[in-house]
Design goal:
The protein is about 0% helix and about 55% strand. By secondary structure, it is mostly beta strands.
Length: about 120
């Protein structure tokens, strides 16, 4: 892509992994997801830091997204440096060495009548 799209720092102020699920796993497992698009011609080095109201942040969770690719990162599958606790409010900062686009999605399948929400993250830089 000749003109970069996106920003290098994104915030998701609202995060919450529901404590239970209804339906077949992994498709219907309750989760939070950061949908990340790297439309550049360079590999994106991603770092996610997670913030809480009552304890110090955890992270960074680090991974790579190849050039001209997308990746959907489920927060409940992040384990290194430690798992993100379920049934706990949190927020996150996502940083990249190249411009990316981030969308936030939650699937809450605690009831059979599941809820799905999606919103753009806040781009700061």
């Amino acid at each position: 892509m000749s003109t970069p799209i996106g920003k290098t720092c994104w915030a998701i102020a609202e995060g919450y992994i529901p404590p239970s699920s209804t339906g077949p796993a992994p498709q219907m497992t309750s989760h939070e997801t950061a949908c990340i698009l790297n439309a550049t011609d360079q590999e994106a080095q991603i770092a996610i830091t997670v913030y809480f109201s009552d304890r110090e942040p955890i992270g960074p969770y680090q991974f790579t997204i190849p050039a001209r690719r997308t990746r959907h990162v489920r927060f409940n599958e992040l384990n290194d440096p430690e798992p993100i606790p379920k049934d706990t409010d949190y927020a996150s900062i996502i940083q990249s060495n190249v411009p990316i686009v981030v969308q936030h999605t939650r699937l809450d399948s605690r009831q059979a009548e599941l809820a799905l929400l999606s919103t753009m993250a806040y781009a700061s830089e």
